Each structure stands twice: as structure tokens, then as C-alpha cells.
Amino acid sequence: MKNIYVILIILIILTGVLFFFGMGKKAEAPVSTSDIMENGVISNNMPTIDTPDTKEALAIKEFVVTGQNFSFEPAMIKVKKGDRVKITFQNTEGFHDFRIDEYGVAAKQAKSPATEVLEFTADQAGSFEYYCSVGTHRSMGMKGTLVVEE
Ligand SMILES: [Cu+2]
Q1: What's the gap in Å between 95 CA and the centre of ligand 1?
Q2: Among candidates 75, 82, 45, 44, which has minimal Cα distance to 141?
Q3: Is the bond preceding 70 in cis, omega lying within 30 degrees of 0?
Q4: Which residues cross the membrane (predicted)?
Q5: Which residues lie across from 148 on neighbouring strands?
Q6: Shared domain check, 120 and 71
Q7: Same domain, yes or no, for 31 and 67?
Q8: Which of 15, 30, 49 is the last residue before a domain boundary?
Q9: 103 C-alpha to ligand 1 centroid (Å)
Q10: How far away, in angstroms, is 139 Cα from ligand 1 center?
Q11: Most buried in the list 4, 24, 44, 51, measured by CB within 10 Å?
């Protein structure tokens, strides 16, 4: 007979605990992160918010290339095939432009100080020269290499 009382008391306590937690959830579950960690139910839903994949797909490789008499800095840029590439060309000295013929990239010829942002998708693998097309600047060393790795 005592067992029935014990079971009843346990049931009453369990009901009380469940009720207490149920109220707690309704009141503050979505608010605090500590609740999310404690509640298996809520934390199980977290993987559905998967932003990392989307962010990676939209990633842009950004570079700042400066041009001066008569060089580019840096003289080499490496990206992976398929990358979206954003090059901010800053002409800091003289009259120059920035070109990559294979990608149809061409900044306007301009006197320093000048800045132009160039964007393209690196969809062909290989090594491509970027250069300044003003006068003989290219042969004077105003060039660099874009490496697109497979
Ligand atoms: Cu130049």
C-alpha cells in the first residue's frame, strides 16, 4: 500500500516539475541562449539555420593593388577557380590603368590619386598578366600575375 503513495507523490512532483518547465519555456525560451543550451528541443532546431554554406558561396576575394612608377603592388594575386574577385586599384603615382585582357578587366587610364573597383569571376584556370597599358609602362615593369588555381 505504501508503494501507491510513493508513486502518487512522485507523479505529483513530476507534474509540478513539468508544469514549471512548461511555463518557463513559454515565458522565455526564445530569449536567452542559456535556455537554448539547456533545452534539447530548441537546440535540436539550430542546424536548420545553416548560414555558413550560403556565406561561403557568396564569398568575394578582395585585393587592393596599388600602381606607381613603374610597378604594381602586390605583383602577384592568387585565387581559386570560380572565385568572385574584387580588385581595388589605387593609382598612387603617375598616370596609369590596370588591365587583365583575358578577363576583360580594364580600369580607366587616370592620373593619381585615383581609385577604381574592378570585379570579375575567375572562371578560367591559369596565369594571367595584369599590366598598365599606358605608353611603355608594361615593359618598364608595370605588370603582375593573377594566378587562378584549378
Ligand atoms: Cu602605367
Answers
A1: 6
A2: 75
A3: yes
A4: 6-24
A5: 79, 126
A6: yes
A7: no
A8: 49
A9: 19
A10: 10
A11: 24
Same domain, 24 and 58: no
- Position 5 scores a pLDDT of 55
pTM: 0.62
For 134, 145, 146, the CA distances from 150, given in Å and listed in that order, are 31, 16, 13
Query: 20 lies in which domain range?
Result: 2-49
pLDDT by residue (tens digit) across 89-112?
999 999 999 999 999 999 999 999
What are residue 146's DSSP bridge partners? 77, 128
Give every CB contact of residue 66 below 8 A, 6+ residues apart in sequence.
72, 73, 89, 90, 91, 92
Q: Is 77 exposed, middle or buried (0-12, 13-18, 19+ CB in 10 A)?
A: buried
User: What is the CA(133)–ligand 1 centre distance, in A?
Assistant: 6
**Ligand 1 center–CA 97 separation, angstroms:** 6
Same domain, 69 and 112: yes
Q: How many domains in the chain?
A: 2
Q: Are residues 77 and 134 in the same domain?
A: yes
